[in-house]
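ok new one. same drill as before - structure tokens go in, u give me an amino acid for every spot. 487 of them this time. try not to just spam alanines like last time pls lmao
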């Protein structure tokens, strides 16, 4: 619709907050009836530029099951949010959070994934968290599956490769929708669903010893089952809690062509299509035609039940959320490669990199917001964005993280530019407001938070919470609805 004016600021109901995942903050991995998850059988890495979360096979799982400690499995201990949630939520409220994104660990509710009855202690814990948030008028944004499916389902039926996992997951989703009806306005199905093409951490499928061709077949089949489960969960939510909204979640990696050469432009377009394929299915409700050629050329055959496509078409998501950390460069003839544990593609000479090799590109966030709004015309939500860095605690107990403030400031400025461009942006939950265990490397020393947690990579420390300089800065940003970004 043509208008002579355009928005000059974030909307009044903009949702400012932060995001975490159960397996990275909760700890309490073996208490109150919780079952073990895929995240808790992945050993910490010895190389911070290598992701260890997919280096898993039956032998390594058996070794993990036999190990009853958290020494080599840091996601088992997290930062003990399980026992500190009141303290942590109070700090979030002090910053002025409007929303807090967290995940419900499936195995806290159904320890084996498909138990007949839910674990009441698990439901009670999340009810206490949600009620504590309500005390401060903080809205919950809940992720249903954030890289932490019950390991029992991997051992029994190879995770999401089995269609039986759909039924188990949707028993879980129905249970939490009914329990928290009226209390959770926003839900997400699968965190960064596209990373299922990387393997085990997102699918629970053991395929590390398979050929690349076999891996692709297994992973896309597992992802199809997740698509169907997501659509069924959306159907359940609309029937159980019609006022609540369901979103999907993508790891967005905007791809630039390495040169103006048309073959490089086409190579970048192909990479972007493979990234956006997942939101195409979940937001548009159908498999896009451009993937037919990719599947055929890679000999991938998606086995579907008779009504799968009808379910996908009838129950697309209400909004689209995504993480944004970096952009990548693609050339038909690849040059120098980025050496980062989640960075793929070529190195962009115009960008700086974090200590973990992630290319920092605030303007790329505006580019991707504008492109995704154009493509989908559904509300967008930036639910992860942040800087992992080695923070130093000073002798007087402070953390001066001006580099984090600068990083976040630049990204928020570009979000504001995108809203002025006409993008309907719901909110921003930076990753992660409190220091937590790194997803990719299981380090503690890769810190994102506004709140410093006194714990080292070996799990030693008091677990005291300490406000960083960025804590006070973000409080000011929220109070001004993104207008005051000064130090």
């Amino acid at each position: 619709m043509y208008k002579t004016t355009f928005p000059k600021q974030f909307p009044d109901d903009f949702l400012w907050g932060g995001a975490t995942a159960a397996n990275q903050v909760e700890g309490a991995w073996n208490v109150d009836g919780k079952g073990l998850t895929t995240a808790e059988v992945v050993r910490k890495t010895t190389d911070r530029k290598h992701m260890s979360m997919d280096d898993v096979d039956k032998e390594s799982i058996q070794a993990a099951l036999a190990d009853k400690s958290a020494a080599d499995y840091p996601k088992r201990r997290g930062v003990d949010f399980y026992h500190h949630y009141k303290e942590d939520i109070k700090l979030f409220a002090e910053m002025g959070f409007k929303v807090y994104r967290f995940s419900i660990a499936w195995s806290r509710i159904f320890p084996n994934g498909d138990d007949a009855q839910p674990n009441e202690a698990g439901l009670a814990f999340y009810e206490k968290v949600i009620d504590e948030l309500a005390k401060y008028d903080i809205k919950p944004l809940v992720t249903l599956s954030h890289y932490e499916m019950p390991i029992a389902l991997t051992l029994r039926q190879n995770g999401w490769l089995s269609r039986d996992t759909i039924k188990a997951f949707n028993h879980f989703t129905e249970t939490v929708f009914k329990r928290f009806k009226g209390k959770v306005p926003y839900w997400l199905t699968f965190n960064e669903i596209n990373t299922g093409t990387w393997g085990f951490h997102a699918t629970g499928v053991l395929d590390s010893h398979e050929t690349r061709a076999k891996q692709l077949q297994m992973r896309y089949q597992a992802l199809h089952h997740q698509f169907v489960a997501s659509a069924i969960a959306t159907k359940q939510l609309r029937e159980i809690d019609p006022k609540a909204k369901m979103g999907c979640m993508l790891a967005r990696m905007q791809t630039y062509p390495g040169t103006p050469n048309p073959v490089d432009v086409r190579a970048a377009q192909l990479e972007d299509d493979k990234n956006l394929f997942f939101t195409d299915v979940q937001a548009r409700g159908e498999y896009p035609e451009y993937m037919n050629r990719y599947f055929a050329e890679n000999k991938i055959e998606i086995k579907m039940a008779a009504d799968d496509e009808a379910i996908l078409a009838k129950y697309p998501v209400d909004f689209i959320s995504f993480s944004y950390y970096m952009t990548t460069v693609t050339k038909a003839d690849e040059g120098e490669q980025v050496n980062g544990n989640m960075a793929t593609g070529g190195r962009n000479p115009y960008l700086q990199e974090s200590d973990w090799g992630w290319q920092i590109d605030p303007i790329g966030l505006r580019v991707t917001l504008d492109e995704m709004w154009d493509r989908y015309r559904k509300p967008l939500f930036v639910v992860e964005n942040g800087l992992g860095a080695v923070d130093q605690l000073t002798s007087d107990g402070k953390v001066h993280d001006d580099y984090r403030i600068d990083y976040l400031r630049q990204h928020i400025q570009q979000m504001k530019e995108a809203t002025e461009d006409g993008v309907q942006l719901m909110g921003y939950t930076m990753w992660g407001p409190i220091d937590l265990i790194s997803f990719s490397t299981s380090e503690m020393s890769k810190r994102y938070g506004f709140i410093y947690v006194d714990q080292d990579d070996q799990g030693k420390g008091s677990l005291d919470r300490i406000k960083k300089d960025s804590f006070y800065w973000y409080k000011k940003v929220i109070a001004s609805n993104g207008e005051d970004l000064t130090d």
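The two ends are 38 Å apart (CA to CA). and btw The chain has 15 helices and twelve strands.
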